Amino acid sequence: MAKTSMLGAIGLLTIGAMLIVPASAQSSGPTGDPSLDAYIDAIRADLRSDKIEVIATAMQFNDKDAAAFWPVYRRYETEQRNLNDERIQLIKNYADSWATLTDAEARVLAQKSLELESRRAELKKKYFAEFNKVLPGLTVAKFVQLEYRLDLLVDVKIASELPALLARPSATTSNTGQPKPN
User: Fold this and answer.
1) What's the start-to-end Cα distance of the chain, in Å?
2) How confident is the model at residue 181 (pLDDT cuts 50, 70, 90)?
3) What SS3 state is found at 171?
4) Reported pTM
5) From start to end of the chain, where are the E strands?
6) What is each CA distance from 3 to 28, 47, 81, 140, in whole angstroms?
7) Boundaries of every domain in the chain
8) Backbone angles phi, psi at 173, to 5 degrees
9) What distance in Å separates the CA atoms of residue 5 and residue 25, rounded to the nearest whole number?
10) What is the pLDDT of residues 156-174, one digit of tens each?
11) Rounded distance, CA 133 to CA 120, Å?
12) Do residues 16 and 158 lie in contact, with contact meaning Cβ atoms separated by under 8 Å?
């Protein structure tokens, strides 16, 4: 397939990622809003479809490798979706509470985020081994690199949309971020 087709699919994937966080981060209501959850689910379904198109285009599997890859990928994607469900809930919790976040709440959210990233890394390691059982090493390495790049696109967009703790001055610091004099 043409390079422009792949770039177009990556563009769709990035645009879809742009829509997830603004909708959740800017909601003023509780995170359990059914219409917001339905919207996020629809965007995620579109993202999965776009991602499959990007993978198929970039990987250019032959019939044998495609037959080996897609069943393993579907299992990987299912497990990844479960982690992403947790990630979206964590993002919603952060977005809803960031303006009033206490030290204790911030620590809990940060710890959950770190644990989630560890689990994401473990999932990738698990499926790296699974893909290596059915595909040539170069094909697996190419997919791992592609998956890393796609994850980066989504992660950067999510991070750019989240409210930053640094943007909220605390009562103990001046506007420059330095401790206030006593």
Assistant:
1) 66
2) low
3) coil
4) 0.70
5) none
6) 41, 19, 28, 21
7) 3-165
8) -125, 155
9) 31
10) 877 777 666 555 545 554 4
11) 20
12) no
